[in-house]
Structure formats: C-alpha cells, structure tokens
Amino acid sequence: MSLSKDIKLHHLTDPIVTGVTCHIASIEADLSLADPSDSSISCRQTGEITAQMIANIDKSKSGEVVFKKSKSIFFKSMKIRRIYDPQTQTLMYVSYSTKETSGSFKHSLSTVPLWGTAAYVEPTLVSN
After folding, report:
1. Measured distance CA(106)–CA(84) in Å, rounded
2. % pLDDT > 70, the chain
C-alpha cells in the first residue's frame, strides 16, 4: 500500500496474538534527506484473542520483538516490540527505529486492551 510516492503503508499481523493487526506508516524515499526512521503505528483487535495466545507471549518487562526491518543504508532498523501490561491487561506495541551505530531512538506506541476478549480475566476483590 502507498499513501504517496514516499509514504508507505504496511500491515502486520502479530505472529502469536493473531487477532491483532498493526498498520505502520513510514517514509521510504530513495536518496532523499527524509529520515526513514520517522514512522507511526496503530494496532487494533481484528480477530479473536484467546487466553492461550496470551499464555504463549513473552511477559518480561521488555517484551519481545515481533517485527524487524532494515530501513536504510545508514544502518537504521525499525522494530516493533510487543509488551504486556498485566495490571491493565493491555498489549502495548512499540514501533522504534535505531541507528545501529549510535543507538538513537524514535518511537511510536499503540495499545490493544484485552477487555471484551476471551483473554480478559475479571479482577477479583481482595477482602481483609
């Protein structure tokens, strides 16, 4: 997909939580001064999200990379990382680009709450 000659639109289905699709808009201009690491992300529930899917994801604080793409000859790469927030039962998708040599970051965030899905666990009240 393409919005213009230089702005490209891509979609990505989460490989484990297949009920989530992310759309990414990024600059992919040949030999221009535009920074190819400028991008945005929007993720939505587009299908079923099950408890088994959530059981299979990395729940560490840093989550896991679900997508990686080299962005330019200037050693930049774009990654999408899925991080799970157990307190709010929300999947966070962070799109970020790094210069492999200096580590400078540009990022964008999108969230998908589990509320209303088969994976949502009703909170229990603790009585004293």
Report:
1. 21
2. 78
Q: Kindly list the distances between the CA atom of residue 96 and the CA atoms of 6, 26, 110, 123, 127, in Å, as whole numbers in the listed order.
A: 19, 11, 12, 32, 42
What predicted TM-score, i.e. pTM, was given to this entire model? 0.84
Q: Tokens at residue 117, please? A: 């899905």
Q: What is the pLDDT of residues 63-99, one digit of tens each?
A: 999 998 876 655 578 899 999 999 999 999 999 887 6
Give CA–CA dist 95/36, Å, rounded.
13
Tokens, residue 83: 């991080």
CA 112 distance to own-chain centroid: 10
Q: How far apart are the first and last CA of the chain?
A: 56
Phi, psi of 67 (to 5 degrees): -160, 140
DSSP per residue over 57-82, as a string?
S--STT-EEEEEEE--TTSEEEEEEE
Separation of alpha carbons 26 and 116, rounded Å? 31
**Across the chain, where does the E strand assignment appear?**
7-13, 20-27, 39-45, 64-70, 76-85, 90-99, 105-113
